[in-house]
Amino acid sequence: MKKVLVIVVTFNGLHWLERCLGSVYADADLYVFDNDSTDGSADFVAAHFPQAKLVRSAENLGFSKPNNLGFDYALKHGYDYVYLLNQDAWLEEGALEKLVAAAETHPEYGVLSPMQMTEGYKDLDGQFEKVLKAAGVAKSVQGSDPLEVKRVMAAHWLIPVRVIRQIGPFEEDLFPHWGQDDEWCNRLHFYGLKVGIIPEARAVHDRALREEPLEKLVRRNYYTGSLVRLCNPAIPLFAGFLFVILFTFVKAAKYKSLLTFKYFRQLLRDLPRVRAHRKALYSSRILTLR
């Protein structure tokens, strides 16, 4: 089997860690980045998974930066693949091997995901089901070959290390906590790579409905979603901005809140960084295609 590094970013995830880390430790190396948890997560990893590369942060660095540090570790230590695994997620036995086998056979895919399901493997994860629906894929799909989708959540991602070298790490300045997976999928398409799922590989993403404050919902769904669209190099910036203007009013009506206008002003302040990011992507792709 190829050399795989499983990257897990933890923050007060003690409830899941035994199932999460235990589902992969026999098949791959573990890189665990703890975001200054207060529930003993880091100590649990040190005690029960001593073979893991454990990084204890003195502060919560979000999602993108810790994963980028894991990417860097994989690049420096000769890994063939990285596997991004949420702390509230775990793999069915044999799933990682199936994903790697598919990736070896289909190098055109920059990300492969297993079927992401609820605990007990009874149903598809709600957001994952939307991914299949958008791609016109039946819930009952089976097989070992990849099925192409536009995007898939990074709770379960197998990535060839060569792809990280090609398109770069997560954009941690614009997307420190959310949206980096959608932005990275857009980048993959821009570089001519695909995103896919392997139906015969199954995994759990245990995210039962959790109450969230309105501001967090608006920030993640409206603000971050708008940033992803604005950063998409396949869409002209002016077209993306016109969409965001309409999106602002739609989300204001949905949430019955003026918070969308607060975050619209933030988007205006973000435009110079968005332009710089897009320019860097265009330049990088030109160099890659030469």
Describe this structure in words.
With 290 residues, this protein is of the alpha/beta class. The protein has 10 helices and 9 strands.
User: How far apart are the first and last residues' alpha carbons, in Å?
Assistant: 33 Å
Radius of gyration: 19 Å
Largest sheet: 5 strands, mixed
Indicate the mean pLDDT.
94
Number of distinct beta strands: 9
Beta percentage is: 15-25%
Q: How many alpha or pi helices? A: 10
Q: Which residues form runs of ≥5 with pLDDT under 50? A: none
Superfamily (CATH H level) name of the largest domain = Spore Coat Polysaccharide Biosynthesis Protein SpsA, Chain A
Number of domains: 2
> How would you classify the helix and strand content by structural class?
alpha/beta
With strands numbered from the N-terminus, the spatial order across the biggest sheet is 3-2-1-4-8
Summarize the helix and strand pattern as letters.
EHEHEHEEHEHEEHHEHHH
At the first level of CATH, the class of the largest domain is Alpha Beta
Stated plainly, the CATH topology of the largest domain is called: Spore Coat Polysaccharide Biosynthesis Protein SpsA, Chain A
Shape summary: globular
What is the annotated CATH architecture of the largest domain?
Answer: Alpha-Beta Complex
Range of helix content: 40-55%
